[in-house]
Amino acid sequence: MERNRSDVKKDTSRPPSGAAVMRGEVTEALTRAFFQEWARTGYSGLSLEHVARSAGVGKAALYRRWPEKAVMASDLLSRVGLTITDVGEQGSLERDLKALLFAIRRVLRHPLVKRILMDLHAEIERTPALERAIRPFQRARRKRIDALIDRAIERGDVEPLIDRETAADLVAAPLYWRLAVLGGRSDRAHVERLARMIAAALRA
């Protein structure tokens, strides 16, 4: 495969060592194009060649980063989704929950995300490779909620023997169901009320 030299940063101040450094702006362009193409065509119709063309780069630049569609989906879902929902310590269980729920709401309200999620749920049943590809994202998202629970235990907000699986489902599911499945709305008051209710349930 022909090497696309426009994708490599050159540093003439010192001799190169190891692998070439790939340009961040090319990765960002490919990321945007991938999600736009997925939302437009669905996963089954998604073509990496079209993604590269939409990003304005050669196919070699894409395949240097991701060898196949499922790998690209796994990496970008994890990278983008977890970055957006990285809220950190807020000082209390309810404030942690509120920050996380607002971050999740911001993601789920995005028009591209809505279309991709609808397609993702349908496509997983037909495409085992996609189901396997999103497992790292699902595990990483669960670890994010585990960290929230760990902080709550350290502060004494919840019992150390809390059922973590049920707690994680309780944190994420209500807002996801309302926005992604039912297509409902969620204003600020709803998120704040939901955070209070989830906090009370986790303490019970």
Topology:
Blueprint: H1 24-41, H2 48-55, H3 59-65, H4 69-84, H5 93-108, H6 111-126, H7 128-133, H8 135-155, H9 164-181, H10 188-203
The percentage helix is 55-70%
State the domain count.
2
Task: Give the class from helix and strand content and strand pairing.
Answer: mainly alpha
CATH structural architecture of the largest domain: Orthogonal Bundle
> Proportion of β residues?
under 5%
The low-confidence runs, each spanning 5 or more residues with pLDDT under 50, are 1-6, 8-20
Main sheet specs: none
Shape: elongated
- Distance between the first and last residues' Cα: 59 Å
* Count of extended strands: 0
Instruction: Give the ordered list of helices and strands.
Output: HHHHHHHHHH
CATH superfamily of the largest domain: Tetracycline Repressor, domain 2
Task: Write up this protein.
With 204 residues, this protein is mainly alpha-helical. It has two domains: 1-65, Arc Repressor Mutant, subunit A; 69-204, Tetracycline Repressor, domain 2. 70% of the residues lie in helices and 0% in strands. It contains ten helices and no strands. The chain has helices spanning 24-41, 48-55, 59-65, 69-84, 93-108, 111-126, 128-133, 135-155, 164-181, 188-203. Helix 1 packs across helix 2 (48-55), helix 1 packs across helix 6 (111-126) and helix 5 (93-108) runs parallel beside helix 9. Residues 1-6 and 8-20 have low confidence and may be disordered.
